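Quick log. Single chain, no ligands specified.
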Amino acid sequence: MKGWRRRRGGRVQASFEQIEAHMLATFAGQVVELLHDDGASVGPGVSSGEDPLEALVDMEGPVVSPDDPVLARLLPDAYRGDDEAAADFRRFTEATLRADKVANADTVLASLRAGGYEHDDESGGADTVEVDLSPGDVQAWLRCLTDMRLALATRLGIDDDEGLELPEDDPRAAMYDVYGWLGYVQESLVLTLG
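-> predicted structure:
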């Protein structure tokens, strides 16, 4: 990765190798799949005969934390120790939160494709992916990078800032390196904004 650069109009740019773009696209896609695959709604909608106000606030949304530890970390309880308040909050907000997270990941995927990312390795495309982000895209990238890192941290068993001490032959070492690299991408993007 060639670092993030500020451009006119609040835009930010970076160059990624195709393999780096592939990792970003893969993890963004996995976040989307995870948010879709457990059967919960990913956004409010109105079907015929449904009260539009009720559909807008999704009064029939989920009321319990997801069973998957990654989803539970991406969609945490708002009120720890108060199950009733947590259930009410989740019922009214989870579908929108899921939809927002999916939209953030979709923005990452779209900007990678616009920059020249090609999923097919045999396409003969450019060696680098030139990502050009608007201020709104930057926020979506930062949120999605956070979601990717939370998902990886949960799978790796990282629950604090100290990280992990892994021997080189540990099968999780490669994923830990990716976790660190995602942190670098995120931190360098934040520093570019400052």
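Confidence is low (pLDDT under 50) at residues 43-48.
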